[in-house]
């Protein structure tokens, strides 16, 4: 049997273990940016050594111990690290670095969950801009390279690098503690974390830019983070609600794209291509959410997604239940986007005129391409074809995704 390719092994271990390694180092040096630098140093060492020596029996432990030794080696030539270690005690860090793989495995079992939770809360700190939170989370928690993040969000690599550097500098300059927030702050901070995870998922589910309509790798990373959060916070209904929503939405990924990469509307999707395992996982998470407490926005959105998942055909969709759920959601989060979605459900229950009346009362979405797209569908169903075509052309002009823009223009042409 052939031995594993060292470079491939390094990449695989890094993707799986990088968050644990950065989190463990951040607990020691109390600086996320510095911890990520040390972890990168260990990654470079693995790329240099493993091709010659082979993959070690415990590659994750090797990377962690190497990173700790690198921290000590840099003491004399890195004043910033020296200051950090002096605060914590040089002997403590040196002793921890020399304790060996067995102790590392014990630390993994006993402390990795808290370390990772601290890392998530730090990377998603409200002091950072939304863009910086997303970039830093993908970097330190998902192990994505700057190039991969840039490609996923269709922005220059230099822009992503600047966001990550700026985020690390902000965390260091403001001396933001590497900690699970105090009880009084946990609700607000958890909301920020869930918001970042959902942003990552949505960018994968319906890309806002570029040529690809979906980016499944982002959905998978968001799901991984959501599942970790659900394991750590089993009593938080909204955490389970978000996981349920992402599981069910992700089940449709294969059916959302046609043979030429074009978007396939929900009503036209081949439901035989929906991933039933993800749907079952989503239903299970939704049950846990309902057991944990009152339904919040993520729980209600997951319940809406579940209505679609239960329908064997588009015609069997329980639109009355969906409209009722959107009405509850609108009371909790009275946003224009929620109202637009409610209009679609109302139109399916009470006819396009009722939905159009709601759409025409929505304000604040002048640059949101889905508003004229929905309005076009309702106008078309009312026989107002010329107006519908104009709305589709306007939607296309606002769409940032090239594939979606082409689909909107094709709909306009068909009218």
Describe the structure.
- The protein is 72% helix and 0% strand.
- It has 3 domains: 180 residues, no CATH class; 128 residues, no CATH class; 79 residues, Tetratricopeptide repeat domain (Serine Threonine Protein Phosphatase 5, Tetratricopeptide repeat), CATH 1.25.40.
- The chain is mainly α.
- About 5% of the residues have low confidence.
Work out the strand percent.
under 5%
Shape summary: elongated
Quaternary organization? single chain
Structural class assignment: mainly alpha
**Structure annotation, total helices:** 20
Q: Major beta sheet, specifics?
A: none
| Tally of structural domains | 3
Low-confidence stretches: 90-94, 96-110
Computed Rg: 24 Å
Helix content: over 70%
Q: Overall pLDDT, averaged?
A: 85
Blueprint of the fold:
Elements: H1 6-29, H2 32-53, H3 59-73, H4 79-88, H5 90-97, H6 101-123, H7 130-140, H8 146-153, H9 157-173, H10 183-205, H11 216-232, H12 237-250, H13 276-292, H14 297-310, H15 319-332, H16 336-350, H17 352-359, H18 370-381, H19 385-398, H20 402-414
Helix pairs in contact: 1-2, 1-3, 1-6, 2-3, 3-5, 7-9, 7-10, 8-9, 10-11, 10-12, 11-12, 12-13, 12-14, 13-14, 14-15, 15-16, 16-17, 17-18, 18-19, 19-20
Briefly, what is this?
The chain is mainly alpha-helical and 415 residues long. It has three domains: 1-180, no CATH class; 190-317, no CATH class; 337-415, Tetratricopeptide repeat domain (Serine Threonine Protein Phosphatase 5, Tetratricopeptide repeat, Alpha Horseshoe). It has helices at 6-29, 32-53, 59-73, 79-88, 90-97, 101-123, 130-140, 146-153, 157-173, 183-205, 216-232, 237-250, 276-292, 297-310, 319-332, 336-350, 352-359, 370-381, 385-398, 402-414.
